[in-house]
Amino acid sequence: MRQSYRDAVFGFAHRFRRDESGATVTMFAFAGVAVICMAGAVVDYGRLSKAYSGLQAATDSAALAAARLPSKDAATMRAAADKFFVANTSGMAGQNIQITKFDFQESSGTVTIESSGVLDTSLMSIAGIKTMGFSSRAAALKEV
User: Fold this and answer.
1) I need a surface site. Which of 3, 35, 39, 100 has the fewest CB within 10 A?
2) How do strand 95-105 and strand 131-141 relate by DSSP bridges?
3) Which pLDDT score is estimated for 33?
4) Residue 74 contacts residue 60 (beta carbons within 8 Å)
5) Rounded to an integer, what distance in angstroms lies between the CA atom of residue 86 and that of residue 98?
6) pTM across the whole model
7) pLDDT tens track, the chain, 144 positions
8) Half-sphere exposure of 86 (CA within 13 A, CB side)
9) Buried b (16+ CB within 10 A) or exposed e, 10-47
10) 118 close to 128: Cβ distance less than 8 angstroms
11) Cα separation, 25 vs 17, whole angstroms
């Protein structure tokens, strides 16, 4: 069994080397570009997933930090949220990672935070996709 597998592989390699029609090379060239783009999508979406998870955790902690403060002053809560958000996003992959919306509804005690960022692609740039955006949203209930 092992010998026949070896013969098949070497036979294919020998036929591939002798082929002068050019069709095989063209087919492998097109397939190679597609495979590289697909591998790039896998790598870049993996990076995006990791960045999104980090952003969601940072947004959650910022909302909880703001909701835990005894103060009901929106500016004080926003400052605490910013502090926790920056601490949890430092060193994270991506650009323009920031809180895009902070809202405190005093009547319900709800703190809502939205954040976003942009991630540069590595291999997907071959296909013309240079960046991917990601965002998150978190809400926390302030004890009244």
Assistant:
1) 3
2) unpaired
3) 82
4) no
5) 8
6) 0.75
7) 456 767 776 777 777 777 666 677 777 878 888 888 888 889 999 999 999 999 999 999 999 999 999 989 999 999 999 999 999 999 888 888 999 999 999 989 999 999 999 999 888 887 888 999 999 999 999 886
8) 6
9) eeeeeeeeeeeeeeeeeeeeeeeeeeebeebeeebeeb
10) no
11) 10
Rounded Cα gap, residues 45 and 47, in angstroms: 5
Question: DSSP labels for the chain?
Answer: -HHHHHHHHHHHHHHHHH--SSHHHHHHHHHHHHHHHHHHHHHHHHHHHHHHHHHHHHHHHHHHHHHHSS---HHHHHHHHHHHHHHHHTT-SSEEEEEEEEEEETTTTEEEEEEEEEEE-SSGGGGT--EEEEEEEEEEEPP-
Question: What CA–CA distance (Å, rounded) separates 60 from 30?
Answer: 45
As a whole number of Å, the CA-based R_g of the chain is 26
Residue with tokens 């296909």: 127
Type of residue found at 7: D
